[in-house]
Amino acid sequence: MNTYQRIVLASRPQAEVKPEHFRLETVAVPELADGQLLIRNHYLSLDPYMRGRMNDARSYAAPQALGETMIGGTVGEVVASRHPSFAPGEFVAAMGGWAEMAVSDGAGLRKLDASGVPLSAHLGVVGMPGMTAWYGLNRILDLQPGQTVCVSAASGAVGSAVGQLAKLRGCRAIGIAGGQEKCDHVVRELGFDACVDYKAGNLRADLKAAAPDGIDGIFENVGGEVFDAALARTNPFARVALCGMIAGYDGADIPMRNVRLLLANRITLRGFIVTEHLDCWPEGLAELGALVAAGRLKYRETVSQGLASAPEAFMGLLKGRNFGKQLVKLV
């Protein structure tokens, strides 16, 4: 193969992401220099954080550059190497971007055992989303057995892992998701104690019924009305792990009425970026991988086929159309 395809950011969205903000290109496979390796990407991960990178705004990371390959996590196979630590045939997790192939100098790569855990899972429950769940639950919420955690976007890649890990700790897990099908999956398949359908129009009343004794920890992925409703049910000294605010990623306002409860209930709120805590990854990934291999941690994937499908799949992700981890299969 002398060429491969990639998707670049063609223009910056001012509000909702549209297909014209992306461009599919065919580029030549470069010659490797000493210390480099070539990876054939098998799966691409699509994640909400990518929406923030599309803006030219100050944030925790630099904006996605126009005309450059869209950022994204990948898993793939080394197909050529001039790097002493990597050999053809090895599988690696990388930030290969929205592209069929990627050249790396080895920095930030993680070698994968594709025999124990499916390759795709290394982008989900045994990858960044799983580590996000693990870190927020263990290092921020630190709930005790019998306490209640509320998880928004509970059927998603992060939320689904949070609830299951909380149950393994002896906690009560309440999910919030969009649609009865997702709520049924969260309770029946993932083992949450209850799940509230925010689309049903009775969010506050339903959440009160699901958490009659209040909420001790909130793992927040959505923000806005969903976060506001959870705050209304908090117990004194509750903790919040603020992971995402997807409700406002397209530029919409995310007003809240219960901010006063941060003070009244003496709530501890901490936002976090899991890639700033790489020291925890070996411990967390080992635990997550063992749980998946033993069948004690379940996951679900939505997989679109081919690189050209990535923009549509990403736009669907931002609107909650995916079920579980959103991936693009490239091979």
From TrEMBL:
Oxidoreductase in keyword set: yes
Domain Enoyl reductase (ER): 18-328
Gene3D superfamilies assigned: Medium-chain alcohol dehydrogenases, catalytic domain, NAD(P)-binding Rossmann-like Domain
Keyword S-adenosyl-L-methionine: no
Signal peptide (from-to): none
Molecular function in Gene Ontology: oxidoreductase activity, acting on the CH-CH group of donors, NAD or NADP as acceptor
Organism placement in taxonomy: Bacteria, Pseudomonadati, Pseudomonadota, Betaproteobacteria, Burkholderiales
InterPro entries documented for this protein: ADH-like_C (IPR013149), ADH_N_2 (IPR041694), ER (IPR020843), GroES-like_sf (IPR011032), MDR_fam (IPR045010), NAD(P)-bd_dom_sf (IPR036291)
Record keywords, A-Z: Oxidoreductase
Organism: Pseudoduganella lutea
Name the UniProt record assigns to this protein: NADP-dependent oxidoreductase
